[in-house]
């Protein structure tokens, strides 16, 4: 910025000198200009009006420079500090690891590697997803049992290593060729649930765990995320949909928010901020859908998402809404939305600044998810 300032000053000085002394230079050269400038400077020193004008111009130049610096400094893309990716090693016990963490590791060992958690929130297994990241870089979630051992892991970033060579660049076909056949159903109690993944994910049973590998249809069906749940934790879940609670509702809301931000930094986008007032609008729409058995951006009163925001006195310059229904967790809801082009575009919209999520459950414990995006 100092070089810019110097250039501006030189241009202004040169223009002023030519305006006042150009004719003299043509007639008498440098010596004539020097003598006339010396005479004029004596007059300037005693003329308060001229001094005032000079000060005004100087202040104006500084203001322009300061404004330029302010705009550059306010650019989140310019200022964003990207932390180093950890050095990843092959897993020692399991087939997969996340950030060098494996199922069965102790929480103390995990946090020695990744630091203190950013959030803990209840998940569909009745335990907490403990979230670790550096402004959503190096993002992962871990679940622990009563002995503080890892019983669940998830990431949607390039933190995965495997003995089979599977990574976030692997294709669905290569995953299926390297691993055993994916499961066709999950058994919970006396009920068998068919897995209907639409080729968006596969579930494998291996290493005393259930490993779900998610694929991105819009990136040539390459691996986009992985979830690992120990058999111990999976057996605790009796039904496909978990009994609703206020803790689970808030957990699913914050998890969907965090997952969206972790995905945005993967795509070089800014992190969205949470807006509590907008959460009320989003949650009210989820409640409306759950209680009145419909699934639509337009409610039974004919209101659009934008009508609902206006009614709640929310000011915005642009806004968008995503809806999901029938997924047992925010992870499955998020990965499904990312495979739907319109919903994906909302999550990856460069100009959005805020996101809030509202969740509600119907009488069958099925969650309805509403994401409201906006820019103020």
Automatic annotation (TrEMBL):
Matches recorded under Pfam families: CAP, CAP_assoc_N
SCP domain location: 257-370
InterPro entries: CAP_assoc, CAP_dom, CAP_sf
Domain CAP-associated: 103-240
Name the UniProt record assigns to this protein: CAP domain-containing protein
Native source species: Aquibacillus koreensis
């Amino acid at each position: 910025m100092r070089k810019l300032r110097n250039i501006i000053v030189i241009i202004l000085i040169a223009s002023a000198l030519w305006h006042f002394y150009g004719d003299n230079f043509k007639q008498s050269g440098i010596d004539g200009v020097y003598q006339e400038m010396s005479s004029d400077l004596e007059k300037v020193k005693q003329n308060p009006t001229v001094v005032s004008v000079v000060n005004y111009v100087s202040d104006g130049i500084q203001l322009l420079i300061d404004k330029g610096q302010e705009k550059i400094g306010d650019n989140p893309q310019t200022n964003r500090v990207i932390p180093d990716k950890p050095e990843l090693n092959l897993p020692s016990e399991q087939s997969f690891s996340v950030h060098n963490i494996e199922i069965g590791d102790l929480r103390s060992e995990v946090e020695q590697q990744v630091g203190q958690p950013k959030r803990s929130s209840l998940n569909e297994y009745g335990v907490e997803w403990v979230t670790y990241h550096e402004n959503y870089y190096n993002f992962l979630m871990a679940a622990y049992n009563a002995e503080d051992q890892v019983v669940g892991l998830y990431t949607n970033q390039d933190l995965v290593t495997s003995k089979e060579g599977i990574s976030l660049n692997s294709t669905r076909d290569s995953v299926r060729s390297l691993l055993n056949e994916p499961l066709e159903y999950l058994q919970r109690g006396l009920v068998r649930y068919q897995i209907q993944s639409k080729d968006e994910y596969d579930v494998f049973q291996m290493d005393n765990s259930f490993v779900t590998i998610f694929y991105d249809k819009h990136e040539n069906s390459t691996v986009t995320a992985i979830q690992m749940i120990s058999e111990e934790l999976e057996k605790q879940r009796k039904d496909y949909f978990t009994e609703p609670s206020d803790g689970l509702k808030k957990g699913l809301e914050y998890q969907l928010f965090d997952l969206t931000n972790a995905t945005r930094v993967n795509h070089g986008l800014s992190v969205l901020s949470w807006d509590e007032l907008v959460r009320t609008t989003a949650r009210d729409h989820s409640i409306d859908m759950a209680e009145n058995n419909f699934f639509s951006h337009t409610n039974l009163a004919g209101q659009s998402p934008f009508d609902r925001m206006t009614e709640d006195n929310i000011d915005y310059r642009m806004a968008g809404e995503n809806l999901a229904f029938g997924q047992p967790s925010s992870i499955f809801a998020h990965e499904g939305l990312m495979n739907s082009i319109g919903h994906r575009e909302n999550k990856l919209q460069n100009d959005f600044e805020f996101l809030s999520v509202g969740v509600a459950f119907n009488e069958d414990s099925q969650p309805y998810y509403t994401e409201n995006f906006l820019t103020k």
